[in-house]
Design brief:
8 helices, about 20% strand, six-stranded mixed sheet, alpha+beta, about 250 residues
C-alpha cells in the first residue's frame, strides 16, 4: 500500500491533501483506510526521504531534491502568487461558508499549471472543490470555486470579465488582486467592484501574501447554478487523478 500511495502523488512534487490521499486509497482498495494507517505510510516514506510532509497544512508530496519548498518572495508575477493563495485556501476554506457546514472535505488545485487535454474547459489560476455535509441534508453537496489572480497592473475591468468566464463550470467565481497598501492601482477598485457585483463575481484583495490577515474579501461571490455536465468536464480535465478519486468518494451519499 505504501507504493500505491507514492504512485498517487504527482511526479512534479506538487502537494495534495492528506484527506484526498486517504480517500483515494480507500476508493482504489475498496476498503476504508484509517487515518493512522495513512499517517504511518507517510512517515515510512518520509524516513526514506521519498516524500515531504506539511503537517500544519495536512499536505504531502513527492520529495523534490534540491528544490525549495517555500513560495517565492518577492512577488514578481502571478505564478509567484499561486502557492501563497493555495496555502491560504487550505487553511481558511471554512471562511467561504456562513455558517460553516457540519463537515467539509476539500481539494485545492493549481489549475493554471496542470497539464490538461484539448483545452475545451476554462483555466482559472487556482480552483477549490469542497464537499460539504449537513445534518439534515440527504446527500453531500459539491461546490466548485475558481480564483483568477491578478498583479496590480492587471487590475481593470477585463480582469472581472476573465473571472466571470470561469463561472460556466463553477459555483463561485472569484477575482483575486494583489494590491500592496501603497499600490496606486487601488483607485481602480470601486469601478471593478461595481462591475463584479453586477455579474456575481467575488473579489478578494491580498496586500501581503505572507500574512493571512491581509487577505480580505471585498465582495462575496454569488452562487452560480452551473451545469453538472460542465462541472464534471472541468474536474475531469483540470484536476489531478488522486483528487478526482477523492472527490468521487466524498460525493457518495
Amino acid at each position: 500500500m505504501r507504493q500505491l500511495l507514492y504512485e498517487f502523488l504527482p511526479v512534479d512534487g506538487e502537494f495534495v491533501g492528506f484527506e484526498a490521499v486517504r480517500a483515494a486509497l480507500s476508493e482504489k482498495t475498496g476498503q476504508d483506510i484509517a487515518v493512522d494507517t495513512v499517517a504511518e505510510l507517510i512517515f515510512a516514506l518520509g524516513a526514506e526521504r521519498l516524500v515531504d510532509w506539511l503537517p500544519d497544512e495536512r499536505q504531502v508530496g513527492r520529495a523534490r531534491k534540491g528544490l525549495t519548498r517555500e513560495p517565492s518572495w518577492p512577488i514578481q508575477c502571478e505564478r509567484d502568487l499561486e502557492p501563497w493563495l493555495e496555502r491560504y485556501l487550505w487553511l481558511h476554506a471554512y471562511g467561504f461558508y456562513d455558517p460553516p457546514p457540519a463537515s467539509l472535505s476539500l481539494i485545492v488545485e493549481n489549475t493554471a499549471r496542470i497539464s490538461a487535454g484539448a483545452g475545451r474547459w476554462t483555466r482559472p489560476d487556482v480552483s477549490m472543490a469542497c464537499v460539504t455535509r449537513y445534518r439534515y441534508q440527504a446527500v453531500p453537496i459539491l461546490d466548485v470555486f475558481t480564483f483568477e489572480l491578478k498583479m496590480p497592473s492587471g487590475c481593470n475591468m477585463l480582469a472581472v470579465h476573465e473571472a466571470l468566464s470561469h463561472s460556466s463550470a463553477a459555483n463561485f467565481a472569484y477575482l483575486v488582486v494583489f494590491l500592496p497598501e501603497d499600490a496606486r492601482e487601488t483607485g481602480a477598485l470601486p469601478a471593478m467592484l461595481e462591475q463584479a457585483q453586477r455579474h456575481g463575481v467575488g473579489v478578494m484583495r491580498i496586500a501581503d501574501p505572507r500574512d493571512a490577515r491581509t487577505y480580505s474579501t471585498l465582495l462575496q461571490a454569488r452562487r452560480n447554478v452551473a451545469s453538472p455536465a460542465k462541472i464534471d468536464g472541468f474536474i475531469e480535465d483540470r484536476f489531478l487523478p488522486v483528487n478526482k478519486l477523492a472527490l468521487r468518494r466524498w460525493v457518495k451519499p
